[in-house]
Design brief:
Blueprint lengths: L1 H18 L18 H11 L9 H16 L5 E8 L4 E12 L7 E7 L10 H20 L8 E6 L2 H4 L1 H9 L6 E9 L3 E9 L5 H10 L8 H9 L5 H9 L3 E8 L16 H18 L13 E6 L3 E6 L3 H21 L5 H6 L1 H25 L14 H22 L6 H22 L7 H16 L5 H7 L1 H18 L4 H14 L1 H4 L5 H21 L9 E3 L2 E5 L4 E6 L9 H4 L4 E2 L18 E5 L8 E10 L2 E9 L6 E5 L8 E4 L2 E2 L17 E6 L6 E8 L4 E9 L17 E3 L7 E10 L1
Parallel strand pairs: 2-20, 3-4, 3-5, 5-7, 10-23, 11-24
Antiparallel strand pairs: 1-2, 2-4, 6-7, 8-9, 11-12, 12-14, 13-14, 15-16, 16-21, 17-20, 17-22, 18-19, 18-21, 22-24
Helix pairs in contact: 1-17, 1-18, 2-4, 4-10, 6-9, 7-10, 11-15, 11-16, 13-14, 13-19, 14-18, 14-19, 14-21, 15-16, 18-19
Length: 765
């Protein structure tokens, strides 16, 4: 009975650790006008996400106009900031930001609330990314104004443009708008999926202590945040609009982003219907609490040199403490552990032989679970090669795989611990896990301080060890309750890593599961029939693998991403069909055949894509009479040691983008594009210097404006510049008869897709 109750408590703790992350219901249309209503926000979203609205498209302008009109309804005075910028990704575009400002009662720093209004190029409807941010802001600002509580700080509302192309709109605001110098704090709302809890992520150049204190005081109802993610984020080259504020303006802020259902990210399934409504409620809760608090508090004093450890936990919401506590807490844990070992051995509740043997099931469980997790996923990719077509790395049945791998790992743990079980050795078996956790905490203290809250489960494990030393047969309900911290803190990470970083991280989930399990040995150590539990766990894991198998095929609800482009070389009049797909289907085979050749020539030129994906297969295509781009060299002068040229490239057929390439050995002393200087490390260096690849930049066309290049090259240098003019109209262009995809397929994201591409060379002799 006690074992059953203890097991139920463990299951309840795991459930609670996830249930506490997200609201379970949404606010309706009858919600008080002074409060955020998800259903009111959804009215906006249904209109915004009706059509795909990438930069430069007609529907992009429709969304912009809708935002402007809604701001006017709130009696605000929206304005548009526009201008050319080139991102560090090498994308040039004329961004058009939408801004408005609510005047505060005091002359203080301003609070800026931020999201972007462009959808990902070509196929995404942008409901989650970032329509959810747009409607959360519109509805929250409406509710805030209805409350009629004047803010002390000015509130700047900014809907940036061209975020998907390289944060161009944010770059334009931070570096070119007068309001940027007034900003004291930014709240940025983003998405990398279509559901799940929204994670708070700090972005600052200094310490986070005052930001975290402010976040805690704002008191959001469902805070999801931890300093491990913060530490990793600071180590990686992550980019959101907020990055431009931090790097270019030294302005701190909070990101709020959800990442679950990652398979919808940037796809044609990023729709109104697929956005989890509870997730939008979560974003609204965040924004209202942040808006109410930070609009009234001093934003001029948020800089700090002190970093905080922080993590969310049920009941207590956010727990935080200074980095300065890391080593003292670790030392206390080590001292307490040594004292417990001394007492345990003295009372013969710990036996040297059993403690040493306790390392065997621990290390074997870690090793085999990690290896099995890694190899089993490799096996899944071999059995289901179609998974490779999902560039996100997270399949439609990905959640089922997470559960399957967790249960298989539990089966491995129960099996190895069954080999070393004997009555009365539970306390001895707990010693090795505590030592391992302390070693991990020492490594964390040295290299990854943000994860130092891992010491909290260690303290509760020490309490468990104390009880086991005092009592030969402790109450298992008490022991289960002492396991709540490790379960509530660590369980969400088991899911977060493969969801956020792809199923290739399943082996990390397996290792984390082992680390959790070994601290639960204070409960499971008293389970006599561990081998039976191993069989049960493996059986459940296999059942979930079978379930994943039955949901592995592509259907109308789980669509296969595929790709097709038409490439016409204007210089040779040769045309080619090409695809990025490694596995062809009946739609792409219509053009490439069942045995296409590998795209060797096209792979030499990687058109910009999120994962550096190149063309895989190609086949000969018919010549089509298309309108060619105009190229005009309207200035060509030699001054001193350099040749100065002005070149205009104009798309006649209203293309969407033009990608430019030139060999890395060509030198460009200066390179100005539509008035924007290409990046140079210093005045004496060259533009596009030290490139690893031939790509120079990509121009995204807005308002049908031509591209004007002003370049200086060594006077004796013969230079070739290749460009690829692309339009995403392969399925609608009158010169082609490409049928719509079947319901089982969708355009592959992150690449140039459904495109008509014209290649041309500019020769400068």
């Amino acid at each position: 009975m006690k074992k059953g109750l203890a097991l139920l408590l463990i299951i309840a703790a795991i459930y609670w650790s996830f249930f506490s992350l997200l609201p379970s219901k949404i606010s309706n249309l009858e919600t008080d006008k002074k409060e955020f209503s998800t259903e009111r926000a959804l009215v906006h979203l249904e209109k915004i996400a009706q059509n795909q609205h990438p930069v430069g498209s007609q529907d992009h302008a429709v969304v912009r106009d809708y935002i402007i009109e809604e701001l006017k309804k709130l009696e605000l005075k929206p304005e548009i900031q526009e201008g050319y910028t080139i991102s560090k990704w090498g994308n040039l575009v004329k961004a058009k930001n939408v801004l408005a400002r609510i005047k505060g009662t005091e002359n203080t720093k301003a609070l800026l609330i931020l999201t972007h209004y462009d959808s990902a190029p070509h196929s995404s409807f942008g409901a989650s990314d970032a329509g959810s941010g747009i409607v959360a802001i519109l509805e929250s600002v409406r509710a805030f104004l209805n409350a009629e509580k004047p803010p002390k700080n000015d509130i700047i509302i900014l809907f940036t443009d061209a975020e998907e192309l390289g944060l161009n709109g944010a770059d334009l605001f931070v570096n070119k708008h007068d309001w940027a110098k007034d900003v004291g704090l930014v709240l940025n709302f983003e998405a990398r999926g279509s559901g799940g809890p929204s994670y708070m992520l700090v972005e600052t150049n200094g310490g986070n202590s005052k930001l975290i204190n402010g976040f805690v005081k704002a008191n959001p109802k469902y805070p999801v945040a931890n300093s491990l993610a913060y530490s990793i984020y600071k180590m990686l080259p992550n980019d959101t609009d907020l990055t431009r504020f931090r790097e270019d303006g030294d302005i701190d802020g909070f990101n709020f982003a959800f990442i679950d259902d990652h398979f919808d990210y940037h796809t044609s399934n990023d729709t109104y219907e697929r956005l989890d409504k509870e997730t939008l409620e979560h974003q609204g809760m965040y924004l209202m609490s942040m808006l109410n608090y930070f609009s009234q508090t001093d934003l001029s004093n948020l800089k700090s040199n002190v970093d905080y450890i922080y993590f969310n936990v049920p009941l207590f919401k956010i727990v935080s403490y200074p980095f300065a506590w890391i080593w003292p807490m670790l030392i206390v844990a080590i001292v307490v552990f040594v004292l417990l070992l001394f007492v345990g051995f003295k009372k013969r509740r710990l036996l040297k032989e059993d403690v040493i043997k306790g390392w065997m099931p621990l290390l074997l469980s870690l090793f085999f679970s990690g290896v099995v997790g890694y190899l089993l996923w490799k096996l899944m990719l071999w059995i289901y090669p179609e998974y490779s077509e999902m560039l996100h790395g997270f399949t439609y049945n990905g959640h089922t795989y997470i559960v399957a791998f967790v249960f298989i790992t539990l089966g491995v743990c129960f099996y190895f611990y069954s080999k070393y079980y004997k009555p009365g050795n539970t306390a001895s078996l707990l010693v090795a896990p505590i030592i391992l956790w302390i070693v991990i905490c020492i490594a964390i203290a040295l290299k990854l301080q943000g994860a130092s809250f891992y010491i909290i489960p260690v303290f509760f494990a020490l309490i468990s060890l104390f009880v086991l030393i005092r009592q030969r047969k402790p109450h298992l309900v008490l022991m289960a309750l002492l396991c709540f911290p490790v379960l509530s803190i660590m369980s969400p990470f088991v899911k977060m890593f493969p969801v956020g970083l792809g199923l290739k991280m399943l082996f990390i989930s397996c290792i984390l599961t082992v680390l959790i399990f070994v601290l639960l040995i204070s409960v499971f150590g008293f389970f006599k029939h561990k081998r039976r539990w191993s069989v049960i766990m493996h059986f459940i894991g296999i059942c979930f693998l079978i379930s994943a198998h039955f949901n592995s095929s592509f259907t109308a609800e789980r669509q296969k991403p595929n790709s097709l482009v038409y490439v016409l070389d204007i210089d040779t009049n040769k045309a080619t069909w090409a695809t990025y797909d490694t596995m062809l289907d009946n739609w792409t085979e219509n053009f490439l055949g069942q045995k296409p050749r590998e795209s060797l020539e096209l792979t030499k030129t990687n058109l910009a894509s999120k994962y550096n994906t190149g063309f895989k297969y190609a086949s000969e295509a018919p010549f089509k009479p298309l309108l060619y781009p105009e190229v005009e060299i309207y200035k060509d002068t030699v001054i001193g040691e350099y040749r100065e040229l002005s070149i205009k490239v104009k798309s006649i057929r209203e293309a969407d983008r033009i990608d430019f390439f030139s060999k890395t050995n060509y030198l460009f002393k200066d390179f100005k594009i539509n008035g924007v200087e290409a990046y140079k490390t210093n005045d004496s260096s060259y533009a596009f210097e030290n490139r690893k690849y031939n790509r120079l930049f990509t121009y995204y066309i807005v308002d049908h404006e031509p591209l004007k290049m002003e370049i200086r090259i060594p006077k004796d240098q013969s230079t070739k510049i290749e460009f690829f003019e692309a339009s995403n109209d392969l399925l609608t262009n009158r010169h082609f008869t490409v049928q719509e995809r079947g319901e089982r397929f969708m355009p592959k994201p992150f690449i140039l897709n459904d495109a008509i591409i014209l290649k041309k060379t500019i020769n400068i002799e």
